[in-house]
Write a structure and sequence with these properties.
Layout (H helix, E strand, L loop, with lengths): L1 E6 L4 H12 L4 E8 L3 H11 L3 E4 L5 H10 L4 E4 L1 H10 L4 E4 L7 H9 L3 E4 L3 H17 L3 E3 L2 H10 L7 E8 L17 H4 L9 H9 L1 H14 L6 E5 L5 E7 L4 E5 L5 H9 L30 H12 L3 H17 L7 H11 L9 H18 L1
Parallel strand pairs: 1-2, 1-5, 2-3, 3-4, 5-6, 6-7, 8-9
Antiparallel strand pairs: 8-10, 10-11
Helix pairs in contact: 4-5, 5-6, 6-10, 6-13, 10-12, 12-14, 13-14, 13-15
Length: about 375
Amino acid sequence: MVKFALLGASGSIGTSTLAVLREQATQFSLVLASAHSDHAKLLKIAAEFDIPCLAFTGITDQATQADIRAQAPQRRIVFGEDALIGALAETDYDTGLNAISGSAGLRASFAIAERGKRLALANKESLVMAGHLLLPLIKAKGTELLPVDSEHSAIFQAIGAHPRSEIRKLHITASGGAFRDLPLADFASITVEQALRHPNWDMGAKVTLDSATMFNKALEVMEAHWLFGLPYERIEAVIHPQSVIHSLVEFVDGSLLAQMSVPDMKLPILYALSYPHRLPSELVQTDLTALPALSFAPIDKERYPLYYLGLEVAQAGGILPTVLNSANEAALRLFQERKIGFTQIHGVCAEAVAGFTNEAEPSLESVIHANTEVYKRIIRTY
């Protein structure tokens, strides 16, 4: 039985992972789980799966901590990011799935890799911010990195054993988010509630908002660059409103291989956990006769300027992907707090990138410092 650590258990990826674990109860044992602050949900999960160790990264009040420990005295419960990193260093597990949202998941990826454990990665930012550091560590420790994002899982499956020399291009599909059909004249009046309604997927707030601006596709292009070792000119994103084809690999002979299913994260999660095998499952069923017509379109620069800013930053590399990611996280917070409008998100990000001097090969400490300082500076400004 595979012993399993799930980080971000209370989020959307965590919820889908738990559904997989329920179906595959004879295959996996959950030994460590983390959440930011939703202690009621995580304690309920711990009771169902009998998880011996829990970590909360966002609860600092000591009275609350004592109350949580009193509710589950039979479990080891730790608080704070440092304590989570410590638990990842000490707990006996085989695979760690990092589904922590945003830059907060960076250190956890390194902690799992440092142990030489299989890293199932749903945290794009780990590679966006520090791919130049994480991949050498994974190689040195002889561990495996498996993508959990549906797009990268699709590419991983389609590539199979083919060498990189046989790949012409990677095509990452994008739903287009909540505003793919909204007239541009209406963008200035977009509300938070509108931006949080994704047409195809049920995801957390950050990923849903990143889908609305298409910043998530810029992150995914960067992630694909690190995962598959291809230059940026051989990676592109394309609008595919139906979200049935999750990505395509174009080979040098002109052939295109795609992985497809109805949009459901349980499928890539199960594949990451069971690789190199495929376990029987009834969780995701695709009826070909019921699928809509499939269409594709280029990404419009006027509608999605943040995607193109992301591509520019990706090409520049160094510390700038961290700066842009941090600026975006701050801008999304300001938008959700109604301090800026939807169309200002791009401007906040562009200004942050323009005002920062690049560093070609930043250390992990530099990445973490820049991430924190850019975020704080933007929040203070507004």
